[in-house]
Amino acid sequence: MGNKEAKLTLSSSYEAFYSDAQVFLKDRIYADYLRRLVYGTDASCYRYIPRLVIKALDEIEIIRILGLARHYQIPLTFRAAGSSLSGQACSDGVLVMIHLGWQDIQIAPDSSSIRLSCGVIGGYANEALKGLHKKIGPDPASINVAMLGGILANNSSGMCCGVKNNSYNTLKSLRLILADGTLLDTSSPSSVQAFRQSHANLLQSLLNLRAQVLEDSELHTLISKKYQIKNTTGYSLNALIDFEDPIEILSHLFIGSEGTLGFISSCELECVEDAPFKECLLLFYENLQRAIETIRILAQNDDKISAAEVMDHACLVSVQGLEGMPAILEQVQKNTACILVQLEHEDAGILRENTAFVLDAIAHIPTILPTQQSNQPSVYNSWWNIRKGIFPIITKKRRAGASVITEDLCFDMDHIQEGMAQIEALLEKHGFKEHGVIFGHALSGNLHFLITPLLENPTERSQFSALMEDLAGMVVSLQGSIKAEHGTGRMVAPFVKLEWGDKAYGLCEQIKTLFDPLGILNPDVILSKDPHIHTKNLKSNTPIEPELESCIECGICERICPSRYLSLTPRQRIVLHREITRLERRVKQGHTKDQALLEELLVGYAYLSDETCAACHMCAALCPVQIDSATIALKSRQKHAKGKGLAKQILAHMDKSIGMVKWGLGLAHNAQVILGAKKARDWSLKMHAKCGTPLVPTHLPIKNRYKLQNRENGEKSVIYFSTCMNRAFAPSKMMTDRRSIQEVFESLCAKAQFSVIYPKNLAKLCCGKAFINYTDLSAQNSNTNAQLLKELSQNGKIPIVLDHSACSTHLMEALGDQGLKIYDLAIFIAQEILPHLHLVPTQESVGLYTMCAAKRAGYEQEMLDLAHACVGGEVVVHAQTGCCGFAGDKGFISPELNQHALIDFVAFYAQKGLKKGFCSSSTCEIGLSESTAMSWQHIAYLVDACSK
After folding, report:
1. What are the helix (H) ranges across 871-938?
2. Which residues pair with 178 in a beta bridge?
3. Which of 3, 36, 279, 477 is least surrounded, with the fewest CB atoms within 10 Å of its CB?
4. Nearest-angstrom CA–CA distance, 552 and 902
C-alpha cells in the first residue's frame, strides 16, 4: 500500500509540509492511518498517533525536515528504537524515525573511545568492543534494542554504570543538528570555530546561565547535589557548573534532552573496562528493610562492587519453578527479599580478596537462607535469570487488557530505606500492591516498581493518577529523583518544577527557549504547561489471542526482523492486529462509521503484515516472553488459503511437480543464456512488478540432473531424505563448486564409510513444509512420512538426514514423537561424519550464515565449530542478521523482502573481501549469493573440499 493510496485528512499546513517533503523523501513519508498508528507506537504507556511519519536517511534530510518544520511551525519528534518508557518518543505531530543508515562504528586505535552513529544499537557497540575487553558506559536494560541516539537523549543507564559511567560522564564529543538546521561536530575544530562565530549569541547566553548559577550558592548547591545520584528529571543542569567552555555546556545539555533541543546524529564515547573475572553473591533477607540495610553497606564499598540488584518477595515468587531459575527460590518465605551482588576485576586474585572483604562487611546482618557464591558463569547466570525474568514474567501474568508501567526513582543512601518503605505504603494505599513488584539497582539508590493497571477502568486510572502525584511529593520530600534513568518524558513533565523548584525550573525554560524558540521540538516532553499530560492518551489494550496478549510493545523483537526496513516489525504487526480486532468488535456492535477504516487496514494488512512476513519465528527468540508474531500471518494464511485442490495434486504427484520445476529452471537458464544473467534478472523484475511473476536471479540454480541411487560404503548406514528443492536444484553456473548437494554428501559418506540409502519412492516425498497452510494435507503428509520412515529406518535404528535446514527442522517437529533419529545434514556431518575424516583446512577466510530455522534449533555453535574445523583463516559471521528473508519462495515472489533483509548483511561483507560463504539452505544461498556477489553454498561443500 503506497502513499499514493493514503487518505490525507490533514490541515493545510500539514498538507503543505507533506507535499514539500515528498519532493526529497519520495515514498518515505507516510500519511495513511495504518503506518501512522504502528510506526507511532513506542514502549511507553502512551498512545499518540502522529499526523505524519518520516523515515530519514541522513543529516541532509534532517536539516531539510527541520527547515520545513520551522516554515510551517509544525512539531517534530525524533525517534530511534522507540524503547523509551516515559512518553518521550511518541508524537501527534510529525514523527521522524531514523532509518537504514546511521550505523557507523569506529573504534579509536588505542581503544580508549568509540564513535557511534545514532542508529547503532547499544549491544552492537559492545559486541564491537568485546574482543578488546571494553564496553560503552551506559548499560540500560534495553541495551540490545535501544539505539545510541535514544541512549544519549535519555541519559539512559542501568545495573552497573551508575552515575560515573553514564552517557553524560563518558561523552567525548557530539555531532548534532540544532533547530535552526545548523550542524555542529564538537570533535571538529573547524566546525567548532565556525559555530562560535555563527552562534556567538547562543554561546554567550549559555555562559550567562552558568554565571547565574555560580552567583547563586543555593542553586549551585542544589544542582551539585542532585547529580550525585541518578537523575533524568528536567535538563542536565549540571552542565552549567561542570564546564566553562560553552561548547561543552551545549553538548552536555543535549544529553538527557529527549529530542527537545535538537537532533543527535552521532557521538564519541569513552570506553570503560569490561573486566574478564566476575563473582556473584545471592543474599536472602527476611524483608526489604533488612535488605536495604545491607545495600547501604555495599554502597560504601562500590569501588569493589559493580552491581547490587534488590528484589522483593513478589519478584521472587513470580519466577519460582520456572526453567533456568535456581532451586533455592523454592525455599523463600513470606516477605523474603533478595540481593544479587556482582563483583568484577581484571585480576582474579584481587577479585577473591574483594569478595571476602564484602562478605565480612555484611556478615553481621543475618540472612534467612544460605548465602550463594560463585565465579562460574553457568551458575551465576541462573541467578541473573531471576532479575532478568521479573519484567517478562510479570508482564505475561498480567490481567487481560492491563497495561505495564515501570517507574524508577532514586534516593541517596541516607533516604533509601525510608524511600523503600514509602513506595510499599503508596502501592498499598492506591491498590497496586497485589499487581506490583519492587526491584532496582540498589547500589545506586535506584528503585523500580512495576504495576499492571487496567487503564480503561476509571477507578484504576484514577488510582494511577493519584499514585503518581503522591509519589512525586514523597520523592521530593526525601530529596530524591522522580526519574532516575528512564527520562522525564510526559510521565514526569508536570512534576519537574516540584522536584527542582522555581529557580532551577526557570533555567530549564530558558534553555528550551534558547534552542527551540518556536517550540516545535517534542512539545510537552520534559516541560509542559499541561498539569495532567501524564494521564492523557494512555494506551488501552483490546484483548487479543492469548499467545499475543502479553506483548507490551517494547520493541526488543524488532532488530532481528527481516522486514524491519521494508514494511512492519513484529511489534507493529501485533499493534495492527490489535487495532483490526478492536475495529471488528466495534463494527459488530453497530459502530458502522468504523467500517471504512477497518477495510482500509485490512487492505494494508495484506501486504505490510502478511505478504512481507517471512514467518521465520526469530522474533520469539528475542522476545522476553517468547511471543511469536509469525502466528498472525500463519493463521491468516491457513484461514484464507487458496488453491487447495492444486496443492493436493502437487503433493499427490510430487515427482511430476519437481519435473515441472526443473522444466521451469531450464527455461530460465535458456533466457539467461540468450539475454545474459543480469538482463534476464532485470527483465524478470519488470515482469514481476507488472504481473507478479517470479524473479529470475542471476544465481538461479540450474536443474539437477544427478541420478540418485544407493551407495554401499560400509556397515554404517544413513537414510538420505533429499528435499524436494534440492532434488530440483543444482548449483548455479556462477557457483564455485558445481556438483549437486547429493553428490557432495555421497562423497563425504564414502570418506567416512557410511552407506547411503535413498527412500525408494523419494521422488514422491516431501517433508511437508510447503503445505503448512493446508492443515489437513500437512497432517496427511506427516502420517505418510512417519509410516515410511519408521519402516525404512527399522523403527529409528538408522539415522535420517535432510539437506535443507528449514525442511529438517520441520520434519523433526512434525515427527518428534515417532522415535526417529532425524538430522539436519550439517549437524549429521558435524556429529557423525567429521570424526572419521582427515581434514586439511583451507587457509582462506570464509563467510558463515546460519539460517533462521537452524538458529532456532540451536545449530549456530555447531555450524561455527564445523567451519572452524575446516578453515585456517577467519570465519566471518554477521551476527546481527537473524533471517535473510528468502523464506522459501518469497525470494522469488516478494524479492524486495530478501533485498531489504540483507541490507546490513551486504554492507558488512562488502568490507571483508571474501569470495566464499557457507550456509545450510539452498534457497537462502540464492539470496545471499545474489546480494553479496560471493559464492554461498551448503557447508557440506566446504567440509568435502578440505577432507580426505
Report:
1. 890-893, 895-901, 903-910, 922-932
2. 262
3. 477
4. 28
pLDDT value at 215 more than 90: yes
Distance CA 187, CA 202 (A): 19
Could you give the angle at the alpha carbon of 530 between the alpha carbons of 525 and 532, nearest 5°? 100
Cβ distance 62 to 265 under 8 Å? yes
Contacts of residue 519, defined as CB under 8 A and 6 or more positions apart, other chains included, come to: 75, 512
C-alpha cell at 875: 570465519
pLDDT value at position 323? Answer: 79
Place of cell 542508529: 119
C-alpha cell at 472: 512525586
For residues 655 and 300, what is the distance between their CA atoms, to the nearest angstrom? 75
Question: Could you write out the DSSP letters of every residue in 120-141?
Answer: SBHHHHHHHHGGGTEEES---T
Q: Find the helix or strand (DSSP H, E) in which 67 lies.
A: helix 59-72
What b/e string do you get for 578-613 counting C-beta neighbours within 10 Å, with b at 16 or more?
bbbebbbebbeeeeeebeebbebbeebbeebbbbbb
Calpha distance 249→575 (Å, rounded): 40
Report the candidate in 192, 170, 168 with the shortest Cα–Cα distance to residue 257: 168
Distance CA 944, CA 839 (A): 9
CA distance 933 to 902: 13
Angle formed at CA 44 by CA 43 and CA 49, multiple of 5 degrees = 90
Q: Are residues 270 and 113 in contact, defined by beta-carbon separation less than 8 angstroms? A: yes
- Is the CB of residue 534 less than 8 Å from the CB of residue 494? yes
Phi, psi values for residue 283, rounded to 5°: -120, 135
- Summarised one tens digit per residue, pLDDT across range 441-453 is 989 999 999 999 9
Degrees, nearest 5: CA angle 625-631-632: 110
Do residues 859 and 826 touch, judged by C-beta distance below 8 A? Answer: yes
Query: What pTM, to 2 d.p., does this model score?
Result: 0.95
* CA neighbours closer than 13 Å in the CB half-sphere of residue 796: 10
HEC per residue, 435-461: CEEEEEEHHHCEEEEEECCCCCCHHHH
For residues 450-463, average pLDDT: 91
Query: Coil, strand or helix: which one is 532?
Result: coil
- Contact by Cβ (8 Å): 771, 645: no
Q: How far is CA 817 from CA 58, 315, 440, 792, 814, in A?
A: 53, 36, 44, 17, 8
Cβ-proximal residues to 557 (8 Å cutoff; 6+ apart), any chain: 569, 570, 571, 619, 620, 622, 623, 627, 629
Q: What is the mean pLDDT of residues 291-317?
A: 93
Q: Which is nearest to 270 in space by CA: 174, 183, 149?
A: 174
Q: Enter the C-alpha cell of residue 556.
A: 526488543
SS3 state of residue 417: helix
pLDDT in tens, 495-521: 999 999 999 999 999 999 999 999 999
Question: Which ranges in 259-347 belong to alpha helices (H)?
Answer: 288-299, 313-318
**Within its chain, how far is the Cα of 69 from the centroid?**
30
CB 177 within 8 A of CB 66: yes
Contact at 8 Å (CB) between 461 and 498? no
Nearest Cα neighbor of 6 from 416, 837, 608 is 608
Alpha carbon distance 126, 144 (integer Å): 10
Residue 172 CB-density burial (10 A; 0-12 exposed, 13-18 middle, 19+ buried): middle
Type of residue at 791: E
pLDDT in tens, 650-699: 999 999 999 999 999 999 999 999 999 999 999 999 999 998 899 999 99
Pairwise CA distance, residues 240 & 555, whole Å: 35
Q: Which residues contact 695 (CB under 8 A, 6 or more apart)?
A: 681, 684, 685, 688, 891, 892, 893, 895
